[in-house]
Specification:
This protein has 164 residues and is mostly helical. It has a three-stranded antiparallel beta sheet with strand order 1-2-3, with no helix packed on it. Strands 4-5 form a two-stranded antiparallel sheet. The two termini are 35 Å apart.
């Protein structure tokens, strides 16, 4: 609405500050928004978080059925595992990625970046290990079940956004 002041709020409108007034801008989907809150980025981040949680939950359920070293004591635990893994990835995933990038740098220089092919798998394995230690009803016994489940999470996290 032309003439709205900076304090004006309108549901579903995106605005650009011009002087003391807000100008409406129409979004790609035809809706307008006042305030310029960056909703597209927020929706993308939320979609990424939810898809990672779903991928982790499905991968852990599949791994518990297929791999002998992965055990979930209760069916509802998979939801907690998915949520915990997604939160760990959200808050600490960047830190694990930075540390691994620095640690793998010498090997990457010698092999022309070969270790970075399994970079996501390593990050998921570390975060899954922490998730295992945080949740009592979830247990991974051994290195190979951990790597296998992390691989399933990596594949599911790659596949889910391409399906939906």
């Amino acid at each position: 609405m032309p003439g709205n002041t900076l304090g004006a709020k309108s549901r579903g409108h995106r605005g650009v500050v011009q002087g003391a007034h807000l100008r409406q801008e129409e979004g790609r989907d035809g809706s307008t928004d006042v305030g310029g809150t960056g909703t597209q980025e927020e929706v993308f981040m939320l979609k990424t978080f939810v898809s990672q949680a779903i991928a982790a939950g499905l991968a852990v359920l599949i791994a518990s059925a297929v791999m002998p070293g992965v055990r979930i004591r209760k069916g509802n635990t998979a939801i907690g595992i998915a949520f915990a893994f997604a939160l760990l990835n959200l808050f600490f995933g960047w830190l694990v990625k930075v540390v691994l990038a620095i640690v793998l740098l010498p090997a990457a220089l010698l092999t022309f970046g070969l270790p970075y092919l399994v970079f996501g798998l390593l990050v998921n394995a570390i975060l899954l290990y922490v998730t295992d230690k945080l949740i009592d009803d979830f247990e991974i016994k051994g290195f190979w079940p951990l790597v296998g489940t992390a691989g399933l999470i990596s594949v599911a996290a790659w596949l889910l956004p391409r399906i939906f």
